[in-house]
Amino acid sequence: MTPSYEAPQRTAVLLVNLGTPDAPTAPALRRYLAEFLGDPRVVEIPRAVWLPILHGIILRTRPAKSAAKYASIWTPDGSPLAVWTQRQAKLLAGHLGERLGQPQPAVLVRHAMRYGNPSIPAVLDELKAAGAARILVLPLYPQYAGSTTATANDAVTAWMARQRDQPELRFVNHYHQDAGYIGALAKRVTDHWAANGRGGKLVMSFHGVPERTVKLGDPYQAECLATASLLARRLGLREGEWQVTFQSRFGKAKWLEPYTEPTLVALAKQGLQRVDVMCPGFTGDCLETLEEINQEARAAFVQAGGREFHYLPCLNDQPEWIGALTAIAQRHLQGWEVGGVPTAA
Ligand SMILES: C=CC1=C(C)c2cc3[nH]c(cc4nc(cc5[nH]c(cc1n2)c(C)c5CCC(=O)O)C(CCC(=O)O)=C4C)c(C)c3C=C
Ligand SMILES: [Fe+2]
Ligand SMILES: [Fe+2]
């Protein structure tokens, strides 16, 4: 059939996050972990060795244990990671000029998850059906890692490889030094100090990765350290008043050090009474921050003799962060026609 008119060309932003199980149950965790840990970008062990371990051992024991952890942070609206991602997409849409109920919003904004739902190919299908001819892929990871950003980009390009009429694509790979992002983090800390006073040490805990991946050229560690030192400088912190740690080690290999929980225990044992802990690499609260840090690490610090453990929430829906995210999107949208008007100033 020959089309009788040219379909309208729309511009879209696709926010991408890691994904989360659909429910805090062992079967839902098994599906989620099978997809996540079956990704060769995440576990870089030869398939013939890894898949029997994953399916024969890990997926028999870990789902029930992880489900119990998820149950402890689940909200009436679902997994915190999903709730915050949806909210960030909605707020970004508002800032970029999508007015719900209008047939032709300026920029379509959708979110997708690398693992679980809504999946990247499903949302790209939906965007294409809505007329998106230009798509900006914006991961909710400020620091680039092969195990997060690259695998999300892979999922997008795998979808592209199946399209006859391909949209134009742009990718944001990182914004770890973005002034708006650093400013939003700084505001989190200064608001916390205003409410609780200053004291102790600021620990910035980032998700870890295997040390080997960094040696092979992954820029992740350097980007985490750059974020942390920019934030410390912005806050006027002196040496000894702040520290970077890495959390969530998985498996037996060496991951980036120092590890978060052993560091907090050592600090408590050295007599440090108060720690303020934040997780700048996570733009929304999730299992790794709410359970691993605010429950497990808190308990370990107190058990080791620490008195005050302050957890600072992630950026979530903080207005300064949504403003920063909007500015990052606008910068990368420049030159693309949006609603018939060029976005470039
Ligand atoms: C923020 C960046 C992240 C990096 C880098 C990262 C690397 C990475 N993660 C695993 C293994 C697991 N991570 C899990 C949860 C999880 N990881 C991130 C972010 C990064 N991961 C987030 C946001 C979450 C939370 C998701 C949620 O639903 O709230 C889990 C699942 C939970 C569990 O069973 O422990 C695993 C497993 C590896 C192996 C890795 C790098 C190689
Ligand atoms: Fe992870
Ligand atoms: Fe964890």
Brief overview, please?
This protein has twelve helices and ten strands. The protein is α/β, with parallel strands linked by helices.
Characterize the structure shown.
Fe(2+) binds at residues 207, 288. Belongs to the ferrochelatase family. Its main location: cytoplasm. GO terms for molecular function: ferrochelatase activity; metal ion binding. This is Ferrochelatase. This protein is of the alpha/beta class and 345 residues long. The protein has two domains: 10-175 and 320-342, 3-Layer(aba) Sandwich (Rossmann fold), CATH 3.40.50.1400; 179-311, Rossmann fold (3-Layer(aba) Sandwich), CATH 3.40.50. Helices cover 46% and strands 15% of the residues. It has helices at 26-37, 47-71, 80-95, 120-129, 146-160, 179-196, 211-215, 220-235, 260-269, 287-290, 292-303, 319-333; strands at 10-17, 107-113, 132-139, 168-171, 201-207, 242-247, 274-278, 308-311, 337-338, 341-342. The strands form three sheets. Strands 2-1-3-4 form a four-stranded parallel β-sheet, sandwiched between helices. Strand 9 and strand 10 (341-342) form a beta hairpin. The structure holds ligand L6N33NVT and fe (ii) ion (2 copies). The ligand C=CC1=C(C)c2cc3[nH]c(cc4nc(cc5[nH]c(cc1n2)c(C)c5CCC(=O)O)C(CCC(=O)O)=C4C)c(C)c3C=C binds next to helix 2, helix 5 and helix 10.
